[in-house]
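Project channel, design review

CF: Before we commit to the Flavisphingopyxis soli constructs, I'd like one complete example in the thread so the newer folks can see what an input/output pair looks like. Taking CinA family protein.
RD: sounds good, go ahead.
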Amino acid sequence: MTDPIFNLPRELIDTAARVIDENRVAGRTVALAESCTGGLVAACLTAVSGSSDVFTEGFVSYSNDAKVRMLGVSSEIIETFGAVSLAGAWAMALGALKNSDADIAVAVTGIAGPTGGSDQKPVGTVVFARAIRGQNPDNIYAERMHFDLDDRGAIRRQATLFALELLSPSKDAECAASPSP
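CF: and here is what came back for CinA family protein:
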């Protein structure tokens, strides 16, 4: 089953609805910084009635220039590590918090393909970061994943699902126990 307006997969909508409810109960607001998902995470959240109680805003920063301009990602981070890196996702999540009133921000950046991959960062490489307001920046959770899928849309869907899950308050303890290296 899909969302009747945008044909969003039911799994994404159901996950978004659960995440909205969990954050509402926790009294917490969320923001996003999206690159390879191009606003798909935000689309899933806003497909849920009442999401404005929780979702404050989303930044779609697809180009490196947009990451610098919209989120304040250092051009040095992009030049040194690349936009698709733990440091890049970390800076995007911090930028989303800095430029919003949200309590938590999740960032997603990656290579959805079918072009753009390299030996070091093949197609399907997606990096996530999760930052909570007031958290020590050294303890921000970030993770690099590889979705071994043949289809750009499938990679974006899996990245969206993972990003939605990272917004869940149930991930707080797990993410705090394993911040990025």
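RD: helpful, thanks. Residues 10-26 form the longest helix (17 residues).
CF: The CA atoms of residues 135 and 176 lie 10 Å apart.
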